[in-house]
Design brief:
589 residues, 10 helices, Cytochrome Bc1 Complex, Chain D, domain 2, heme binding, five-stranded mixed sheet, Neuraminidase, 31 strands, four-stranded antiparallel sheet, globular, 6-blade_b-propeller_TolB-like, 2 domains, alpha+beta, single chain
Length: 589
C-alpha cells in the first residue's frame, strides 16, 4: 500500500512537472510566433555590411542570386524572388528555403519557364495561395503547392500589356491587392515630362498631355480573371509618372505608392535650376492614392525644401510658381530627389518595437543623375505611423549597401536595395538588385526600453552619410577644384590641337566643344585619352583623319580633371569623370 501511495505521489508530481514544462513550451512557442527573440538565428558579425538601429541584427540569407527585383515570403518562411532577367535556362524566379533555422538558405531553386517580355521583371507577391509576379509586359500567377518549395501549378496570365506600342519607358509593373478581389497595376509614362521633344532643353510640355490616356497612372483589374488587357481594367488614379514601390494598407484600406520624380532640371533648364537644385529635386513622393485622384504629373512636381507642389518649367514654372497645385493630390512626405523608391512595405509584425507597428519601410534603389554631387539613396528608410497618421519626418533604418563612403557613380555601389518583405515571425527581408543578396533583419533587444539611445546612431548617420544627407552646395560639389586644375592641364596637354576655345582648327584637329565624342560614352572618351586614336572619324558631321597620341602617362586624377573640365566647358554639359573610372578602364587595357 505504501508503494502504491509512493507511486501515486510520484505520478502526480510528474504530471505537475509535465504540465509546467508544457506551459513553458507553449509560452516559448507563443513568444517565437509573436516575434520574440527566441528561435531567431544569430546575426552576422558585421550585419552583412549594414548599419542598423541599436539592438537590430542582420543575417545574409543568400548571395549572388542574380539581378533580383521584388521578393515575397510564404507562411512557412519560404522565400520567392523575381529576377529582372531570366537566367540562361529562361527561369525568371528563385525559391529559397532555410531547413535548420540558421538564417541561411539551404535550398535554392530556379524556376518559371514563362514568357518574360521586356527583360524587366519586377513584382513578386503571395496572395490567396498564388504566387503573383510580373514582367514588363505581363502580370502572371501560379498556384503554390502545399509542402513543395517550387510551385507545380501552371502559369496563368492575368494582365497583358502591349507596352511596345509607340514610344515606351518606365515599364516596371509592381502590383498590389485590396480586400475585394481587385489587382492594381501602374502603367508608367513613356517620357520624362511629356515634352514636345522628350528631354530636350527648352522644349515645352504638351497641354493636355496625351500620355495620360493610357499612362502615368494606376489601373484596377480583377485579381483572378485571365488575359485581361489594359482596356479591361479601369483607371484608378492618374498623374503619377513612374511607380516601382506600391502597397495596399489594410489598416485604412487604401492604396499607397512611391512616385519616381522627373529628371534633368539643370540640363534642360539651366537658366532656372543649378546642378545643386537638380541633384535634390524634384522630390520622390510618398502618396496615398485615393480612387479618382490626380497627383499632377506632368504639370507639377513637389519641392520638399519649400514644402510645395510647383509648376514644372515646361508648363511655365520658374521654381516658385504654384499655379493650380492645390487641386492635386499632395504627398505625405517628399523625399530627396532621385533616391529611386523601389519598394514599399507596411510593417504589421510584432517582433520589432511598438514604434514600428503599421509604419512604412521604403527601399531606395539609389540615384544615377546627381552629379556633380554624390549619388543619393542606396538605403532603407522608415516612416513612423502614430496617432492615426504617418509622420512628416522619415528615419534612416538601414544603410551601408553602397560599401563605399561616397558613391560618385552608380557603379561604385556594391549593392542597391530593391525589395522588401515581412516574414511570418516579423523579420524584415531586404534584397539587392545587382548581385541578388538577401538580408534578414531581426530585433534582439528589449522592446519596452527601445528608444532614442538605439536610434541615435542612425539619426546621426542621416545627417552625415553622403548618400543620405542633403549635399552642401559648395563643400559637397565633387567638381570643386577639378575645373581649375582641369583647365590648367587642358591648356598644357590638349589646347595646342583642340585650341583654347575647344573648337579645334577646323581641318586637322576636331573640336571638343559640343562634341558627341565628349558628351557621349564615358568609357570611349577615357580610352581615347589613354590609348590615343588614329584613322578617319566624324565629329559634328565633319571628317577628320589625324592621329591623336596616347596620354596614358598622365595620372588617373589628371585625366579625370581634364575630361571633367572638357565635359563641363565649351558648351558641354555632361557629368564629371572620377579617377576611379579612369583607373577601371586603364586596368582593362
Amino acid at each position: 500500500m505504501k508503494n502504491y501511495s509512493k507511486i501515486l505521489s510520484e505520478t502526480k508530481l510528474r504530471t505537475k512537472l509535465l504540465a509546467i514544462l508544457g506551459l513553458a513550451f507553449l509560452v516559448t512557442i507563443s513568444f517565437i510566433n509573436s516575434g520574440g527573440t527566441g528561435g531567431l538565428p544569430q546575426g552576422d558579425n558585421d550585419n552583412g555590411g549594414l548599419a542598423l538601429p541599436g539592438d537590430f541584427e542582420a543575417v545574409v540569407v543568400a548571395d549572388s542570386l542574380g539581378r533580383a527585383r521584388h521578393l515575397a515570403i510564404n507562411k512557412n518562411g519560404d522565400i520567392y524572388v523575381k529576377l529582372r532577367v531570366p537566367d540562361a535556362q529562361k527561369r525568371g524566379s528563385v525559391a529559397l528555403r532555410d531547413n535548420n533555422n540558421d538564417g541561411k538558405a539551404d535550398i535554392i531553386e530556379y524556376f518559371g519557364n514563362y514568357p518574360d517580355t521586356g527583360n524587366y521583371g519586377t513584382a513578386m507577391r503571395i496572395h490567396k495561395g498564388y504566387l503573383y509576379f510580373s514582367t514588363a509586359g505581363e502580370v502572371l500567377r501560379t498556384k503554390l503547392t502545399p509542402g513543395k518549395l517550387v510551385p507545380e501549378g501552371k502559369t496563368e496570365t492575368i494582365v497583358v500589356d502591349n507596352y511596345k506600342r509607340g514610344k515606351y519607358s518606365h515599364i516596371a509593373k509592381p502590383i498590389a491587392f485590396d480586400n475585394k478581389g481587385n489587382l492594381y497595376v501602374p502603367f508608367g509614362s513613356p517620357s520624362d515630362v511629356c515634352q514636345v521633344a522628350d528631354r530636350q532643353p527648352g522644349s515645352p510640355g504638351q497641354t493636355p498631355c496625351p500620355e495620360l490616356k493610357e499612362h502615368a497612372g494606376v489601373w484596377k483589374f480583377s485579381e483572378s480573371k485571365l488575359n485581361q488587357k489594359q482596356s479591361d481594367g479601369t483607371m484608378y488614379a492618374t498623374g503619377i509618372r513612374s511607380i516601382v514601390g506600391m502597397s495596399w494598407n489594410n489598416l485604412d484600406n487604401s492604396l499607397y505608392a512611391m512616385q519616381h520624380g522627373r529628371d534633368d532640371f539643370s540640363r534642360t533648364w539651366s537658366n532656372l535650376y543649378t546642378p545643386w537644385h537638380s541633384a535634390l529635386l524634384p522630390s520622390e513622393e510618398f502618396l496615398k492614392v485615393p480612387e479618382g485622384s490626380d497627383a499632377g504629373w506632368p504639370y507639377y512636381y513637389y519641392d520638399f525644401m519649400q514644402g510645395k507642389k510647383l509648376l514644372n518649367p515646361e508648363y511655365g514654372g520658374d521654381g516658385k510658381k504654384e499655379g493650380d497645385a492645390a487641386k492635386y493630390n499632395m504627398p505625405l512626405i517628399g523625399f530627396p530627389g532621385h533616391f529611386a523608391p523601389n519598394d514599399l512595405l507596411f510593417y504589421t509584425g510584432n517582433q520589432f518595437p511598438e514604434r514600428y507597428k503599421n509604419g512604412a519601410f521604403v527601399a531606395f534603389h539609389g540615384s544615377t543623375i546627381r552629379a556633380p554631387y554624390p549619388q543619393g539613396g542606396y538605403c532603407v528608410a522608415f516612416v513612423p505611423f502614430k496617432d492615426g497618421k504617418f509622420s512628416s519626418e522619415w528615419e534612416l533604418f538601414a544603410d551601408g549597401f553602397g560599401g563605399v563612403d561616397t558613391i560618385v557613380n552608380t557603379s561604385d555601389a556594391k549593392y542597391r536595395p530593391m525589395g522588401l518583405a515581412q516574414g511570418p515571425d516579423g523579420s524584415l527581408y531586404m534584397n539587392d538588385s545587382e548581385k541578388g543578396k538577401i538580408w534578414r533583419v531581426m530585433f534582439k533587444g528589449d522592446k519596452k526600453s527601445f528608444g532614442t539611445k538605439q536610434l541615435a546612431g542612425m539619426a546621426a548617420r542621416k545627417l552625415t552619410s553622403p548618400n543620405v544627407k542633403s549635399p552642401d552646395i559648395e563643400k559637397d560639389n565633387l567638381m570643386k577644384g577639378q575645373l581649375a586644375a582641369g583647365s590648367k592641364l587642358y591648356n598644357t596637354y590638349c589646347a595646342s590641337c583642340h585650341q583654347q576655345n575647344g573648337k579645334g582648327d577646323g581641318t586637322r584637329f576636331p573640336p571638343v566643344a559640343e562634341s558627341e565624342w565628349v558628351n557621349g560614352d564615358k568609357r570611349k572618351l577615357i580610352e581615347v585619352v589613354l590609348n590615343g586614336l588614329s584613322g578617319p572619324i566624324t565629329v559634328k558631321g565633319i571628317g577628320y583623319n589625324e592621329a591623336m597620341p596616347p596620354h596614358g602617362y598622365l595620372q588617373d586624377s589628371e585625366i579625370a580633371q581634364i575630361l571633367t573640365y572638357v565635359r563641363s566647358s565649351f558648351g558641354n554639359n555632361s557629368s564629371f569623370i572620377s579617377p576611379n573610372e579612369v583607373s577601371r578602364y586603364r586596368a582593362k587595357r
